[in-house]
TrEMBL record:
Presence of keyword DNA-binding: no
GO cellular component terms listed in the entry, alphabetical order: cytosol
Keyword check for Oxidoreductase: no
Annotated protein name in UniProt: Glutamine amidotransferase class-I
GO molecular function, one term: transferase activity
NCBIfam families: PRK05665.1
Length: 242
């Protein structure tokens, strides 16, 4: 049987990007399509108040990226935090990307805030500090597309660092075999990153924009991180290989 993944969408794409990319839920579905481990996906836009029914059960809950700040106090963010804390206390597996990475760190005792280093955009390179068995295939260095101006500045006490760089010290972490989070965006493709860069060019600043655009022809490990995420969820479960 396939893994059942609940995707908690925490944003709505800009109107000019919807036709091509639909939403972050669809982008993750495309990332996971054809992976070695079969999975089915159920997308709920929590920004709009959409949540699974109380009796729904999933193998993992994935919190997407968002233009919102993880440390903001919008009612929908507070509702999401309460929901995720319930899931964590129930022992459910949680996955976080960008906003989700930061929100879960905050929720579980860490800290996230506006980064003193400024915007991180384009392709970024990370040193891997640990590679458990589920992080297969193995990598010498991790590269991911990124788009963020906030960062996790302190991990939860029980978290294990997985990836780091001089620009982003806490780029990926896990908490036991229950929580797995990445600051980068495995679901992004270079064309989407370029579209975001063009939209945010004035806000990001011309030098940062130009430098980021020049990185977009580099290879990135989005598909590999997608496989890691599914293997992390399947670890200890009787999931069938596709």
């Amino acid at each position: 049987m396939s893994l059942q993944i609940c995707i908690l969408e925490t944003d709505i794409l800009r109107p000019e990007l919807v036709d091509q990319y639909q939403g972050y839920g669809k982008m993750f579905e495309r990332l996971f399509a054809g992976q070695a481990i079969a999975a089915e996906f159920h997308v709920f836009n929590v920004m709009q108040g959409d949540y699974p029914s109380a009796d729904a059960r999933f193998d993992a809950y994935l919190v997407t990226g968002s233009k919102a700040d993880s440390f903001a106090t919008d009612p929908w963010i507070e509702t999401l935090k309460a929901y995720l804390l319930e899931r964590y206390q129930a022992g459910d597996k949680l996955l976080g990307i960008c906003f989700g990475h930061q929100l879960l760190a905050l929720l579980l005792g860490g800290k996230a805030e506006r980064a003193s280093a400024g915007w991180g955009v384009g392709i970024h390179h990370y040193q891997l500090t640990e590679q458990p068995d589920w992080m297969t295939p193995k990598l010498d260095e991790l590269t991911l597309l990124i788009s963020h101006q906030d960062q996790v500045t302190r991990l939860p006490e029980n978290a294990t660092l997985l990836a780091t760089s001089p620009f982003c010290a806490h780029a990926a972490y896990r908490i036991g075999d229950q929580v797995l989070c990445f600051q980068g965006h495995p679901e992004f493709v270079p064309e989407y990153s370029r579209a975001l860069l063009d939209i945010r060019q004035q806000h990001i600043g011309e030098p940062t924009y130009r430098a980021a655009v020049q990185t977009l022809d580099q290879a990135h490990h989005g598909r590999t991180v997608g496989e890691w995420m599914l293997r992390f969820v399947a670890n200890g479960k009787a999931a069938q290989l596709a």
